[in-house]
Structures are given as C-alpha cells and as structure tokens.
Amino acid sequence: MSVESTTSESASAGSAPSLGPEELALGLERLRAQQSLARGLLWGAAAALAGAGAWAGITTVFEYQIGWMAVGVGVLVGQAVRHGGRGQAMAFGLAGGALSLLGCVLGNLLAGVGFVAASQDVAFLDVLVGLSASGAVELLELMSSPIDVLFYGLALHQGYKLAFHPITSADVARALGR
Prior knowledge:
- This protein is mainly α and about 180 residues long.
- It has one domain.
- Helix content is about 80%, strand content about 0%.
C-alpha cells in the first residue's frame, strides 16, 4: 500500500484533515527528515541481543530449543528498528531482517555455550571468553538442525516486514503542526 493510498484512506475515515498535494509533499518531506537508520540499527541491535539472551536462557533452562523463539526474535527486532528508526526506506527492512537473523544465530550459539558450561560445571562467561571462531562454528553446527532454516527464515521475514514505519495522514498532519 502506498503512502498516498494510506493517507487518503485515513483522511476519509476522519482521523485527520484532508491534505492537498503540496501539504502532503511537505509533510512527507518532514517525516523523511525524522528517519534515522543509525538509531534504528542501534535499537535493532539492542533488541537482537535481548532476544538472543532470552533465547539462550529459555533454551538452557528447559533443555529444549523452541523454534518459534526465532519468530519472537524477528518480531522484537523488527519492532525495535521501526520505532527507533521511523523509516520507510528499504534499508530499514534490510536492517531488521539482518539483525533478526543475527539475533537467532547468537541465541543458538549462547544456548550452546550454556549447555557446555552446565555439562562441564564451569562459568558461562569462562566458556564464552574461551570460545574460538572455529569452536563457535562447531558449536553452532551441533546446536542446529535443518528445521532451523525455516525458523530463521520466518524470523528474517518478520524482522524485515515489521521494520518499516507506516505513514498515516495523522502522521503527516502532525509533521505539519496540526
């Protein structure tokens, strides 16, 4: 759905005054000026870390990996990019998708670190700090199954589609000071 159709539908529903083409263009320009990819990336990265931590904690405590957690990470990251970045450009969706995937992989890795730490009766941070890149890859291979590809894809999709900030005619009117 385009911005123009979104604003037309909202205006006809009575949520904001009707806007002329010049006012609409000015309002959209002001909204674009409020976008911040850097802020969206920051918020999305924080959400990816939080989601990865939750994934690892739940998986370690229950000793079972729940694939739907990946979708939760994607939703969390996508919403964070949306609210932090307030963007409509493709870069926001790509950031949301990439950070969602990163959060899932990190969650899986951290869960593996938790299992290793518990089985060897050592501190989680000791295992994490001592983990080499090749060890991390090996641990991810042990922690992964073919179905993970489906759930990672769903997380990526959610992160992408939820990262875009929708524009309504009420948003445009607020940007114009109405």
